[in-house]
Amino acid sequence: MDFLEALEWRYATKRMNGKSLPEGTLERILEATRLAPSSYGLQPYTIKVISDRSLLDRIHEDAAPQPQVKECSHLLVFATKTDLDDSTVDHYIELAATERGVAIADLNGFADAIKGTINGLETAADKQAWAAKQAYIALGFTLAAAAIERVDASPMEGFDPAALDRVLRLNEDNLSSVVIAALGYRDTAEDRMANMPKVRRPLSQLIQRV
User: I need a labelling partner for 130 at 20 to 30 A (CA). Which of 42, 64, 83, 194 fits?
Assistant: First the structure.
């Protein structure tokens, strides 16, 4: 299956059959997510990967009532950092220096540019919104990678973030949930959307060439 065929095949699955993903399949999807671009490469988010059935049941009951939450193989919770500051950048610069084999001092200009962007965001809400944009880019890579692996994925915003944060105790790690995605396999007998044609605007309406 090529990339466009995979995208045509995928849809936001509404019902899943409970079958578990093979470990190698899951790891390839997660690795693709890890490799997603983000502003400056900072990745100001953490992704919780949940497969514990009792925890999924609790999330379904307290925060996200969609059936996919209980029926999926794994639930991915994209949670942004709530404490973005200079130390976040310093830790990233240390990693970058190690990975690229350069001195930290050689990256001072890069570090200052990142700090300037973050400190230029006036409120905590502004920082959260900026971080959430980065998380959504990663989510897009998750969905595309899942499609290539012939794994169904259902992204969801219709949940109670405060309740989910409490269930997962995200505040203890200075995190806040912004979007979730259920991974699994479609239940074609129960999902009325499974065999419906995909509806998207044609290129002639969506794209404006200049």
Answer: 64
Rounded Cα distance between 73 and 52, Å, is 9
Residue written as token pair 């693709």:
32
Do residues 53 and 20 lie in contact, with contact meaning Cβ atoms separated by under 8 Å?
no
Burial state string for 128-160 with b = 16 or more CB within 10 A and e = fewer than 16: bebbbebbeebbebbbbbbbbbebbbbbeeebe
Q: Which residues share a beta bridge with 154?
A: 182
Looking at residue 128, what DSSP letter applies?
A: H
What is the structure's pLDDT at 137?
98
Torsion angles phi and psi, residue 184, rounded to 5: 175, -150
Looking at CATH, the fold of the domain delimited by 3-84+126-206 is given as: NADH Oxidase (3.40.109)
Amino acid at residue number 110: F
User: Distance from CA of residue 202 to its chain's centroid?
Assistant: 27
3-state secondary structure 59-71: HHHHCCCCHHHHH
Apex CA 67: angle with CA 66 and CA 69, to 5°?
Answer: 75
CA 176, 32, 3 angle in degrees (round to 5)?
125
Tokens 């995928």, residue located:
10
- Beta bridge partners of residue 16, listed in sequence order: 186
Model pLDDT, residue 6: 96
Confidence of residue 115 (pLDDT cuts 50, 70, 90): very high
